[in-house]
Amino acid sequence: MSIPLGRRIREQLISSGFNVLNVTGLHRAASVFTRGRGAILMFHHVRPWGGEEFSPNRLLEITPQFFETVLETVQSCGFEIVSLDDAVARLGHSGRGGDKPFVALTFDDGYRDNRDYALPIMQSHKAPFTLFVTSGFADRTARLWWLELEEAIRALPRIRIELEGQTLDLPAVTSEEKQAAFQALYWRLRPGPEDRMLDVIGQLCEQAGVDVASLADRYCMDWDELRAYAADPLCTIGVHTLTHPMLAKHDDAFVRRELAESRDIIEQKLGLKTRHLAYPVGDPVSAGPREFAIAEELGFASAVTTRPGMVFSEHAAHRLALPRLSINGNWQDRRYLEVLLSGAPFALWNRGRKVNAA
Ligand SMILES: [Zn+2]
Prior knowledge:
By secondary structure, the protein is an alpha/beta fold. It folds into two domains: 5-142 and 222-349, Glycoside hydrolase/deacetylase (TIM Barrel, Alpha-Beta Barrel); 145-213, no CATH class. It has helices spanning 5-24, 26-34, 64-76, 84-91, 112-124, 135-138, 145-155, 175-189, 194-208, 212-219, 223-230, 252-270, 289-297, 334-341, 344-349, and strands at 38-43, 45-46, 61-62, 80-81, 102-109, 129-133, 158-163, 166-171, 235-239, 276-278, 302-308, 322-326. The strands form three sheets. Strands 1, 4, 5, 6, 9, 10, 11 and 12 form an eight-stranded parallel beta sheet that branches. A two-stranded parallel sheet has the order 2-3. α13 links the parallel β10 (276-278) and β11 (302-308). α3 (64-76) crosses α14 and α12 (252-270) crosses α13. The longest helix is centred in the first third of the chain and has 20 residues, at 5-24. The two termini are 22 Å apart. The model has no long low-confidence stretch (mean pLDDT 92). The chain binds zinc ion (ZN). Zinc ion binds at residues 1, 108-109, 240, 244, 280.
C-alpha cells in the first residue's frame, strides 16, 4: 500500500521537523511531554534490499538489519515492547506506578518475509507482535494493486492508457521515467473510485503480461503458513479485511461485510479469536468516523489507522482510531527513529493535539 498526497506532504514536514530536532537535540527535552504512553509501530516487508533502482514501494520495506536496529533502539530509548492486548489495556491506566512507555509491533497484509526475516529477530528479543491478515491475500483472491502497478511499469517501456476520455501517454524506459510514470498514475488513480483504479491497473498488467493472480502467491503467506506463524506464542493475529479496500469509499453494508466476514474467515481458518483491526491504507480518506463506529459496533477491542502519532491516555476513549508510527523504508536511520520515538515531530505536526480521530 502506498501513501497518498497528504501523507507525502506530512512526511516532508515531519522530515524537516526531524532535521531541526536532530540538530538541536530539543526532542530529548520535549519527549517527557510528547511521547505519551507509547507508540504502535507499523511494518510491511522486512527483507534484504534487492538494489532495484525503480522501487516506488520502497517505503514499505526495511532490511532485517534495520529491523534489528529498531528493536534495539526502542529498548535503549526506554520503551518496553508489549503485545497489542497489553498496549490497549495500558491505555486505561493512569501511567503512574512505574509503567514504562510501551511499543507494540504491528505488521500489515501477511507477507512471507515477515516469517523469514522478522520472526527470528523478534524471537531473539522475545518481542511480541501483531500480524493483520487480509484474508483475500491468504486465499489468493484479493489484489496487491500497488505491486501490480509497480510490476506493470517495470515491464512496460511506455505507458498508454485511456483515462476519463483522455489518452495518458508516458515514457517508461529509464528508472526516472518509470518513477515519474508510477507517481503520475498513482496520484491520478488513488483518490478516485476504487473500481476504476483496479480496472486501469488491471489493463496495464494485461499489456505488460504481469500475472496478477501470482503476486499474492509470491509474497503472502497462505493459510497453512499463517497457521504455523500464528502458533508462535509471541504472535497476535488481527483483521485486515477481505480485499484490502479503502473502506470509506464504499457503502455501510460493504464495510460491515469486509470487517465481519474477514474476521470470521480468519478465526475459522486459523482456529483462534481476533480482537484487533487495521484499516487498509488507513489514512483519513480510507478510514474515518463511520469506519471507527462500525468497528466498535462489531466488537473490536482496538483498531489502528496509519494516522501518525504517539498513543496517549486520551486514546482510551478512541481505541478504534489509534495512530501508528510508520517505520519507513526511505529513512532507515537510528537517529531519525530516536527523534520519531520522542513524539516531538508528531506534536509539531498535530499542533499539540493528542487525538486525531475526526
Ligand atoms: Zn495493508
